[in-house]
Design brief:
This protein is an alpha/beta fold. It is built from ten helices and 13 strands. The chain binds nicotinamide-adenine-dinucleotide. Nicotinamide-adenine-dinucleotide (NAD) binds next to α1, α4 and β5. Nicotinamide-adenine-dinucleotide binds next to α1, α4 and β5.
Amino acid sequence: MRSTAKRVLVTGGAGFVGSHLCERLLAQGHEVLCVDNFFTGARANVAHLLGDPRFELMRHDVTFPLYVEVDEIYNLACPASPVHYQFDPVQTTKTSVVGAINMLGLAKRVKAKILQASTSEVYGDPDVHPQPESYWGRVNPIGFRSCYDEGKRCAETLFFDYRRQHDLGVKVVRIFNTYGPRMHPNDGRVVSNLIVQALKGEPITLYGEGTQTRSFCYVDDLVDGLIRMMETPHAVTGPVNLGNPGEFTIAELAALVRELTGSASPIEHRPLPPDDPRQRRPDIALAGELLGWAPAIPLREGLARTIAYFERALQAA
Ligand SMILES: NC(=O)c1ccc[n+]([C@@H]2O[C@H](COP(=O)([O-])OP(=O)(O)OC[C@H]3O[C@@H](n4cnc5c(N)ncnc54)[C@H](O)[C@@H]3O)[C@@H](O)[C@H]2O)c1
C-alpha cells in the first residue's frame, strides 16, 4: 500500500459513478468504505471488489447519521435519473439535504475533506450557454424535477455554509451528463435508453424532435476529475463544472448508437416531458485551470465501451 494511503468513504458507492470511483481509489492504494442503501445501486456493481481486504461495503441510508473514521468523503448518494428521483421525491430531497447535513457533520467531527457530487441541474433550464460556474441558474422550485434540482442546490448551500462557519475542506463539483458501463438499463437516461432500445431492436424514442442538445462525459474521465478535485489545496472549494463540452443533439446521439450497434430500430417521437432543458453544455474552463482536467475519451469510443457492457448485461439477464 502507498504510504499516502487514505481511508476514503464513498456514499452511493454501489451506484454507477460510485462503483467506478471505488475501483479507481482502490487501484491507487486507498482503503475504501462504500456506503449505499441500494435504492438505485446494486451489490453486483461492486461484487468484484469484495475480495479486496481494503474494500468494505456497508448498507446504510445517508439520511441517518454515520459514525466512521475516514480521511476523505465523496458524497455521491442520491438517485440521479428522473425515473428514480421522482419515484419518491420527498426521499430524494431528504437524501440530498439531510444526507449532506449528516456527511458534513461527519466530516467536521473527523476533520475529513468532503466532496459533493452536485449537478448541472442546479442551472435548471438555463438562458446562458454554455453555463459557467458563476451562473446562478433558472430553476423551477415547484416542478417535478425540483426535488432533485433544489435538493442539490440546498446541499451546495450547506457545503458553503460549513466552509464559512467551520472552515471545512469542502469541494463541490457540478457533474454534467455522464455515461458508461453500469448505468441502469431502465432508468430513462438517454444514453442507456437508446442503447438498450437499439440492442433489443425496439423503436428508439426521441422526445420532441430530438433537437435538444446534451454533452456526454465518459465515466472514467469524470472519476479522474473527481479525484483531482479532492486533491486540490484547502483554498479550492469550487463549484467546478465537470463534463464533456462536445455538444450533440439527441437525434445525433441516436444515429451514432444505431450505427455502432448495427441496429435497424426505427425512430419514434414522443412529447417532451415538462421542464426538460433545451440545451446543456458545460463550460469547463475552470476545471482546466484549477485541475488541469479535460475529458479525453471521445463519444464514439465511450459509446462503444458502453454498448459492449450492455450487450453482456442483456445476454446475462
Ligand atoms: N450520472 C450522471 O450523469 C450525473 C450527473 C450529475 C450528477 N450526478 C450525481 O452523481 C452521483 C452519482 O450518480 P449516478 O449516476 O452514479 O447515480 P446512481 O443512481 O447510479 O447512484 C446513486 C447511488 O446512491 C445510492 N443512494 C441513493 N439514496 C441513498 C441514500 N439515502 N443513502 C445511501 N445511498 C443512497 C443509490 O443506491 C446509488 O447506489 C449522484 O449524486 C448524482 O446526483 C450524476
